[in-house]
Write a structure and sequence with these properties.
about 80 residues; mainly alpha
């Protein structure tokens, strides 16, 4: 079965995103975990955009936003110390 380069790249981003999020669950450092989650979410966002699935796209945007929000709150806590 022939797959276009764009479809292949989108699936590759999706697989990488899934692997990163799975790895992030086991990361000990909270800041590192959040960056891994944001990166994995971005990979899955690219894949969901390729699929043109609006529910999956919104889910990934919310997931990335939550990770970035947590990173910003961690940065604020670090600055207060």
């Amino acid at each position: 079965m022939y797959m276009s380069l764009l479809a292949f790249a989108a699936k590759l981003f999706g697989i990488l995103g899934l692997l990163l999020i799975t790895y992030g669950v086991f990361a000990k450092d909270e800041r590192r975990q959040d960056w891994i989650f944001v990166s994995g979410g971005a990979g899955l966002l690219i894949y969901s955009m390729h699929l043109r699935d609006p529910i999956f796209i919104v889910l990934q945007i919310v997931f990335i936003a939550a990770g970035l929000y947590e990173l910003s709150t961690l940065n604020k806590k670090t600055k207060k110390k």
